[in-house]
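Task: complex structure prediction.
Instruction: return structure tokens for all chains below.
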Amino acid sequence: MPTLFGSGIKRREDPRLITGRATYTDDVKLPGLIYLAILRSPYAHAKLGKVDTKAAKAAPGVLAVYAGADITDRVVPVPCAWNVPNCNLKTPPHPLLAHQKVRYVGDGVAMVIAESRAAARDALDLIEVDYEPLKAVTDPERACQQGAPQLHADVPNNLAFTWVVAGGNADEAFAKAEAKVSLRIVQQRLLPTAMEPRAAVASYNAGTGQLTLWATSQNPHIHRFLCSVMLKIPEHRVRVIAPEVGGGFGSKIPCYADEVLACLASMDLGRPVKWTEDRSENYKATIHGRDHVEYVEMCGTRDGKITGLRTRVYAGLGGYASTAAPGVPTILHGLMYSGAYTIPNIHGTVHGVYTTATPVDAYRGAGRPEATYLIERLVDTLAREIGMDPVEVRRKNFIPKDAFPYTVATGLTYDSGNYHGTLDKALGMLDYGAFRAEQEKARQQGRYLGVGVSSYAEICGLGPSQVAGAVGFGGGLYDSAVVRVYPTGMVRVYIGTKPHGQGEETTFAQIVADEFGYPVESVEIVHGDTESTPQGWGTYGSRTTAVGGTAVKLAAQRVKEKAKKVAAHLLEANEADLEWKDDAWVVRGSPDKRKSFAEAALMANVAWNLPAGVEPGLEATAFFDPTNFVYPFGTHLCTVEVNPETGQVTVLRYIAVDDCGPPINPMIVEGQVHGGVIQGIGEALQEMAVYDAEGQLLTGTMMDYAVPKASQMPKIETAHTVTPSPVNPLGVKGVGETGTIASVAAVVNAVCDALAPLGIKHIDKPLTPARVWAAIQQAKGNGGGR
Amino acid sequence: MKRTVSLSVNGATRTAEVEPRALLAHVLRDDLDLTGTHIGCDTSQCGACTVLIDGRAVKSCTMLAVQAEGCQITTIEGLATNGNLHPLQQAFWEKHGLQCGFCTPGMIMTAVDLLAQNSNPSEGEIRHAIEGNYCRCTGYQNIVAAIQAAAATLRGATPARAAS
Ligand code: FES
Ligand code: FES
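Output:
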């Protein structure tokens, strides 16, 4: 029987989505529903005076109005849940509604609950707030200089932490090096822009003391825990349901004040409360991504051996430390400074800095795109410095395929890899030699073609819980599954992870159906409701399949072991004499003596005739805690043409060769790569959250923020190699973030390669026509073009 | 202040008490329980709210409900006929043209209009036609492939193979 594992079957979640029958949070309706709206600070930084809610309270349809002072004593501030050790981390309290001070445009100041969305919204305009504006600072490098405006009383120079990673002896390597290069890199702020804005429906039953919260969440169990802490109610009385979730990209991991305010309002008013942000609110009140200013250096020999890497990074955190924020530029970034290479000497310093801007947290890739980008920019810069082909420099420094498991200088141990394999495949798809020849010819005609290489290794499948604890993550990182078999043999699987577009209702069903010899239709995957699913940690960090998928596999195996005992009993045979064939156990040597899995499931469930010592019922729970992270890798190539008159960059070809272990569903894997790559190309060419000097978000609506459109984006050519991971029995890694991790550097490297004849070394992304044009003008004016 | 609107939606007449300022998108979702039409922005960029008004794709957040009186409105819920998926719905499923699905209803409605105007659009024409519909998940490639496949089905030809 052919296995479902490895087959690109159609997704099982799609029928409800393509017919408009899915239920997203804002679609949830309950009797007596009322609406919450939140007043947000129009100032980036201000002392908060009187908040006058009298007129709003008197407005038609308004049920209640609260300011920060009204709730401060009743709730615990929004916690930061990643307390990275050994970096003197300071996480000042983040009140649910500001009191005394506001710290970014969008900081919540007051809330209105009313009979309709419109009434709640209208009443916001009636709240009068006294602000005493203070100076703003949104650049993380400037924010930690002496004399910068101070956000928090107990955080001098706005310095939330200084974290250091070191391996080998970088200073000595640089002192002795034959070649050195350095860059100042800005990794701009980005707006995650999940197409579904955040929303919450909270319903408190005073009779039972039960709180139910429907929320746009990537990790409902984490939200259950944090809600219970913030509201000071027992965790077992909180049920969080993440129904259909319309994309997250990290922005639906954190715990925000808004969802908890909806809960508080429902507890006070005794009615269900809905809050839905609009897009402009989302751009101010939902986390942003990236925001690094980096000083980075690489050194090596003249024949291309990389000997050292040093960084000094200013990572903007925004006004407060969001849920996972401290871990992103440190554990998920600095520990990856070796990239795909054997760099013996590494030293990185990361300063986390509070700024008067929206909090920054994990955004697709979370720290690894920033790491890959700076490494890959440096490799190209070094290659140019020593006059070597950038492909050759990569080859020369890759961790060799027989060196795995390999421990890099930062201390991580990579599980498996074949970096030359993906590079060679990508080069073959492009015909690298032919492109270089074409580029040479084009240059002679005054045209600027370029090719960018980006070879990455990334850390995902988060991760061993022991490591999570050691690095200050406020939870475990195992995951879970319950496989429950019904009397008719039909199967429901309850999982602790929370798919929101990644297709695990299909891929996990493929895993289970294979185990039982079933068609995929016989298995349903259930997720998102803490009431029915076992404790899990959610979907982020490309962990769902490697960790949660393995739990599914283990639970299915446990079920099958028990069913086998029942089958053996029914066949009056020894278990050892049974062979599994297609969908049944057959007694070896007597092919007509068989019991299917479904027959065993029926007997287990009715329990008329079970072997001694075997309990009735057929279900199993598994919690899988991996022994290590997994490390996907690959090489992406991008070719571009730059128009020197306009600065316009045209992507000619984009080739993505990734290795995420064996793909369960190649169609879904390819879709993940497409989406990730386009998000990265958006980052490379057009996306940027812009603040002005007063801390106003200039890209505050979708009209101003350049989300990639279909007409602007190229076609992606994908291919894979398969190197299984030894960390889990499926051999799988992760693929949700690889596209974003790899593509940013591929595009920028291509543009810098195209403009090399002008002497241009580096242009900060996003490479908008204006920026590229300005760089060309400057290069020409400076007599570039060696 | 509220008034009654009578709307023809998916072939049925529906009435609701709404404020004159109520957007069609909100009335469809909140008053008529047609939550397949989504709202992804407040500046008419994203296209998640796209429905058909007299056969043409319209962003229902750009229109007041009272303006839609007398028009034939089709939402995603009304696209399948007699339980059969519309060829575009089928093609989005076959070609993996969706991930989280939030953009999908609007994307499909825009594509219905496109294929009614142009039965054999090129890749470039498709990309241009859907540029008012944002998708953050798919990178658009499989959406383009799905629209091409549906176009072929609607023309009665054998479905085109996905662009790889
Ligand atoms: S909600 Fe109508 S275009 Fe975005
Ligand atoms: S499928 Fe998620 S936005 Fe398009």
